[in-house]
């Protein structure tokens, strides 16, 4: 399981590499953005993100260390040092990246899922894995509550306006074609579009079930996937780095038992 | 009725966790891993506190995610990149590349034209009575962007643009324009120049 999760994380790091978003590829940004986040402030006061962002050799060393640590976690999962380096590394990568981009992003799946692997003891790992699963359930359930609390759910034109705002740049470069027609239709018909928003809220709130049973994890996984696929198709929000949250809902135990059974048969 | 609901709950869930079983789980965590128990408790308290305050502090994330009402607008301001070949289609880049390339422009514009991003005011509010002199200057230096950093932004931006677009020569301009909210959602004919830089 550790190999699968860290292998998945490695693929995400490769995705970052091919999309010029590892620290050494950011070309030493001149501006920083700690925002109002106290954790960002603390790291910036310690000069850590700035040091990594503004010195190419430091950023390159960091990227190499992070990537190699992740690979070592795939090859030798039963060790703690490189797991710690990987976990701390991805969090630093996240903080530095957000600071360079001028915005703090919500794509954090690759930050949460590797955390339980710091524990080598089976009992502690189980506790950690369950806690991460609850954390993910909480984040999405709270997203659903926020949609209702802040009034987005009850505002009938909300999704239509969101679609238009998020696709404004896209419309500039795609003035014709079926996709343009489809987006224009959705923006012009808020009554239909708002159902997407309601479905998104439903999928968010569905994660409450995760607090009470693991029996429907397959459905929760499907719901999360549909939610993110919808975001990708309608709002062009990629979910590659967020995808590691799916790992918390996969039937690892069933697969392990099946694997064990097949091995015994052999 | 209570017995019926209880049996229905059992039937629907199979293996289920109730409030009682969650408390028992916490008790189990306490006996097996005390550090995790206190960490979880602290985390829950901190998460509730930050949610109530509406402040996001990593790792206490607030997943607002389009929760707010988005009111109607006549138009929306966007930033585009203009090269000698016309507007560069930055929407073809990945999300990660777009975020660094274009979101940073929006942040830069706020800094350059508004003169601040609120950080100096926040530093003053949080630390004015606690820290003074060189300590205060240290905080400003490490949390805020000075005029040199703002002035260097276009050079940095051109380096990153070259790396993601494979364009290495010629003038490139970043402009601000507007997209109308009525179909066919075309952009305004007027572009406002943010900066121009020659790629080397």
Structural summary, described in words:
The complex is a heterodimer of chains A (266) and B (200). Chain A has 266 residues and is mainly α. Chain A folds into two domains: 1-121, no CATH class; 133-251, no CATH class. Chain A has helices at residues 2-18, 38-45, 48-54, 56-75, 81-101, 109-112, 122-149, 158-173, 178-188, 190-206, 217-235, 252-265. The longest helix of chain A is centred in the middle third of the chain and has 28 residues, at 122-149. Chain B has 200 residues and is an alpha+beta fold. Chain B has two domains: 2-53, no CATH class; 75-199, no CATH class. Helices cover 52% and strands 16% of the residues of chain B. Chain B has helices at 2-13, 19-32, 34-53, 95-114, 119-127, 134-143, 147-165; strands at residues 75-83, 86-88, 170-180, 192-199. Chain B has a four-stranded antiparallel sheet, covered by helices on one side. In chain B, strand 1 (75-83) and strand 2 form a beta hairpin. In chain B, helix 4 runs antiparallel to helix 7 and helix 5 (119-127) packs antiparallel against helix 6. Chains A and B meet through helix 2, helix 5, helix 7, helix 8 and helix 9 of A and helix 2, helix 3, strand 1, helix 4 and helix 6 of B.
